[in-house]
Amino acid sequence: xxxxxxxxxxxxxxxxxxxxxxxxxxxxxxxxxxxxxxxxxxxxxxxxxxxxxxxxxxxxxxxxxxxxxxxxxxxxxxxxxxxxxxxxxxxxxxxxxxxxxxxxxxxxxxxxxxxxxxxxxxxxxxxxxxxxxxxxxxxxxxxxxxxxxxxxxxxxxxxxxxxxxxxxxxxxxxxxxxxxxxxxxxxxxxxxxxxxxxxxxxxxxxxxxxxxxxxxxxxxxxxxxxxxxxxxxxxxxxxxxxxxxxx
Length: 247
Hints:
Blueprint lengths: L18 E2 L3 H6 L10 E10 L13 E13 L8 E9 L1 H19 L6 H12 L7 H8 L10 H28 L5 H22 L13 H16 L8
Antiparallel strand pairs: 1-2, 2-3, 3-4
Helix pairs in contact: 2-3, 2-5, 3-5, 5-6, 5-7
């Protein structure tokens, strides 16, 4: 909003959507949905922007502003509206936006593979994660920031952070595919095979781009050794008490 363009004779109300905001340490203590939505006094909302002035741009141009607000009292409260007592603004550069978005994908996948798993939610997350499209999704971030032709344009630390998130992403996608293979009915096998093929192509594309192996296990859902390895990882994740945080 450009305040200079607003009519001084009018009062304006800007409405946005906020989500509870926790540090990694706080999230480790809030283990379930109830605890993550009660006694909350810190919230966050995001605003996409570009340096050219438009809200949206290419992956290489896309910045994001995180506004963290703290309220005078915690929600839920006897009043529906509580004054904001402090505000902090965090600006993420394009490569930091990529890291943040990929961390969110990893966190969402980690949540849907926790028991009791919902196969519909699982498949929605998988479908949005393993589709191989250079111009959108995970591969767009890899192409924009990890291609050997451009990687030297960015901070080494940020590049390594993004690579680490991609490694986590490939691992959790594999675990989600393993879980899906055990939960689907017989009429969904073809759909599962399409997801598996997309995942394998994504691994190959990342291997070629990053010049390091992102090797999937070929027999997802078929090989008993593969199933045992994946189940061990699934149990490790499901036994963990914390969730990923992008703070």
